[in-house]
Amino acid sequence: MGQYWKIVNIDRCEHLGHWGKLGEFFEAHDSLDIILLLADSWAGCRIMCLGDYMIKCPPNVLTSEELAEIEKLPENTETERGKTLYSLATEHYKHVSNRIRWGDLRGMVLRNRTKRVYVRRDEVLEALAGREGDIGNVLLTNISWSDDPSCAMRLDLSRGAWAGDRLDVVPLNVVETNEEWEDVTEDQVKLTRFALSRND
User: Fold this and answer.
1) Average pLDDT in the 54-64 region?
2) Which terminal residue of the chain, N or C, has fewer Cβ atoms less than 10 Å from its own Cβ?
3) In what helix (H) or strand (E) does residue 127 lie, and over which residues does it extend?
């Protein structure tokens, strides 16, 4: 049957509702909604795309207070879903819709503030033009997390290397002259191109 996925913002206790199976929305332009939020109210927050079969978060993502909140959740015997961040988000996080319908993302970069790396949107668009890929695909490739590999794709994206990291979207000039930031666009394009090719 497969698992269903939800985009969550841990710091703001918000989620974007159920998005369905990862392979079904991976190539949709809806992922740009998250990018627009990361340029606005979600900037600098811990973001994850959670599968409902998840059990534990990556190490060091949740605070002791957040872990205690999860432990207080009742066991859900109807869905067999345990005490997880997915359950906490479903029951207690605010469901928000992206109210930013348009934003000029030219010259912007997706920045991982936890790992001090960034990805150039313009280069991603050019490199993935044949697949209609965008920086939103790069994001989903890196922030998806579950303990079960079922993604409705021919590639397991359930252990995203950026899941739970602090992310934002900023103009390129914020990072290009700063030596503490590393441009990982080339590697991320390769990874995302492969993910898109495995979703046919």
Assistant:
1) 95
2) N
3) helix 121-127
